[in-house]
Amino acid sequence: MIEAVRKALADHEKDLTITDEGAYIKVKSNHFLDKPTFSILASQIRQLNGEYISAGKDSHFRIPKTPQSNKVTSTKDAVIAGLKTEADELEAVSKTLRRMATDLEKEQ
Length: 108
Hints:
The chain has helices spanning about 1-10, 35-45, 75-105, and strands spanning about 15-20, 25-30, 50-55, 60-65. By secondary structure, it is α+β, with helices and mostly antiparallel strands. Strands 1-2-4-3 form a 4-stranded antiparallel β-sheet, covered by helices on one side.
């Protein structure tokens, strides 16, 4: 399980400490993460059925090892679902930008 989490979060490996805590995998940042990085990481961890634990200097993410009901249980499926969500969001932004560009051209 810990290797699957490491693989899913490979883009942030240098920023994180990932440990096996028995019933869950603990993911803790090694330093302050800017808002965009934190948001991306939080989204990826949520797709692994994880959650953020706010605890001051010991704040971290926790990913349970046991499957949660009504949630994605396969790491591969979670990554695929996350990529599809990101693609949908990018497509929506792209459409908005095209519409804005068209509106600006009409104003000229």
